[in-house]
Amino acid sequence: MCFWISLILYFLYLFLKTSKNLQMLQQNRYNRGNKYLKWLRSNLKKNYWTWDVLGFVLFSFSKSSILDILFMIFYGILLFLFIYEKKKRETKLPLKFTGRIIRLFFTIFIFSLVPFWVLTKSEIFCYLLLFLFLYFNNLMVVLANIINIPVEKLIKYYFKRKSIKKLKSFSGLEVIGITGSYGKTSSKNILGDVLNIKYNALKSPENYNTPFGLMITINDYLTKYYDYFIAEMGACKKHEIKELCDLVYPKYGILTKIGIAHLETFLSIENIIKTKFELIESLPSDGIGILNADDENQINYHLENNCKIIWIGIENKEKADLYATNIKLSSKGTKFTVYFKKKKKRVIFETKLLGEANIYNLLSAIALGSSLGLTDNELVLGVSKVKPVEHRLNIKKYYDMYLIDDAYNANIDGAKMALGVLKLMKGKKIVITSGIIELGNLQYDINKELGKFIANCTDIAILIGEKQTEPIYDGLLEKKFKKENIYVFNSIKEGLAILQSLKEKETYILLQSDLPDIFNES
Predict the structure, then answer these.
(1) Which H helix or E strand runs over 277?
(2) How do 401-406 and 394-398 pair as beta strands?
(3) Residue 401 in contact with residue 415, Cβ under 8 Å?
(4) Cα–Cα dist 162/310, whole Å
(5) Residue 375 pLDDT more than 60?
(6) 500 CB neighbour count, 10 Å cutoff
(7) For the chain, where do the domains classified as CATH 3.40.1190.10 start and end?
(8) Is 485 exposed, middle or buried (0-12, 13-18, 19+ CB in 10 A)?
(9) Cα–Cα distance, 416 to 419 (Å, whole number)
């Protein structure tokens, strides 16, 4: 009886622990570029120095008549501790039960049945296998992921053929691709809002910027009633943008800014630039590419395509075909004038969006929208109706304070612009940040630079992750920022909890770069 109760407790605990490890696998892009294995290696203590290790002690009682009782108590305690710690633990991105995750669960479940094949011969050996499968569960997750690769490739091939066939059946539909190191999601949402003033445009939802994400969008959401499909395209290594272009065949392309992002997997800035330009170089000769004249990486690139290129900008007025001038930033929004060189005209725009970064995204939408037939009045109306994107420089009430939510910003340029917006606010200013990640050997220097910039823009700095934010701390002190105004916590929950004791009559909080669970230090 005790044996079967211990098995029930075991499988409950196995399910919860597998869910947690699959959540980490999912956030590490299913170990693409060995990302999950690198995370395991850098978190050995967290993953292996756990209560599970006490199971080894139980095997010293291997000849005891009460072994079944001991294991029943052991798994009961582990289950209780896991649930108790889970309630305390902060979860930012919960596990998404996709088809792939369900298939991985099934594979791991098959593994867990192996010990029962030896049960009739040796109960202690059965217990030993069950324990090892549990203790090394994260490695079982890796093995299951490897075993499922052929299945995932077949599934991907099926959905790819289905989505390509569906796209080809819509003869009037045209595809717009958007990529860059940052600003993709904001640019996509802005363009969608502008084009929908006149046309029916479908944008890929949320951060659906992978092959599977675009396939799901095409197969589940795209219909013959749409004029344009706006596809956000993400990449963390070479040739991934080309793969997406071979899936959707864009006629138009927008390249936001290129910078140092995912450097650990791209390995060099040259690889990043070349990969991002795969979008523009995949466009047909009658297509249109929108490039940023203020981005040196784009200006200096030798483009191998004869499609039409429209340059937008703010600073480089000589190169830009249309540029923004008379920019007036405020805590309520932005007002600016766009000069169209070819038509020699000026048009005034107003938007609820905050920050200079959004002006570039608006300029891209204005440039492409104008080329696709929107009138000046339609463009002005479209820009005025653009809604702030969740977690990307949108301001909202937080109790009796104001929160500038820029949690999804993960680059130094965007962080500086967000801090510039905070600086505009009148009242007490507080920054909550986890820093910038995946920068390889440049991580310390860039985060230290961020710390120096924060020192000039805020009254209070709340750093999340003691180890992760050490360079930010160093940058703050180098700029003579007061130590008593720096708070360091290991979770965003702790950082938010202290706000009530720090606030004044009018308080603005910038939440910058809230990193996913894989970077939790608690």
Answers:
(1) helix 269-281
(2) antiparallel
(3) no
(4) 33
(5) yes
(6) 11
(7) 170-385
(8) middle
(9) 5
Q: What is the dihedral of CA 323, 318, 415, 391, to 10 degrees?
A: 30
According to the model, what pLDDT value does residue 407 have? 72
pLDDT of residue 397 exceeding 60, the answer is yes
| Phi, psi (degrees; rounded to nearest 5) at 354 | -105, 150
Q: Within a 10 A sphere around the Cβ of 308, how many other Cβ atoms?
A: 14
**Cβ–Cβ < 8 Å for 219, 164:** no
d(Cα 195, Cα 201) in Å, to the nearest integer? 6
| Beta-sheet strands, E only, within 356-513 | 394-398, 401-406, 428-433, 460-464, 486-489, 507-512
Question: Residue 219: what are its φ and ψ, rounded to 5°?
Answer: -70, -30
Residue 158 pLDDT > 90: yes
3-state secondary structure of 207: coil
Specify the CATH class of 394-519 in words: alpha beta
Residue spans of beta strands (DSSP E) within 50-200: 174-179
> pLDDT tens digits, residue range 266-275?
778 888 899 9
Query: What pLDDT sits at residue 298?
Result: 94
Select the more confidently predicted residue: 501 or 249.
249
Here the tokens at position 19 are 């869910």
- Name the superfamily (CATH) of residues 170-385: Mur-like, catalytic domain (3.40.1190.10)
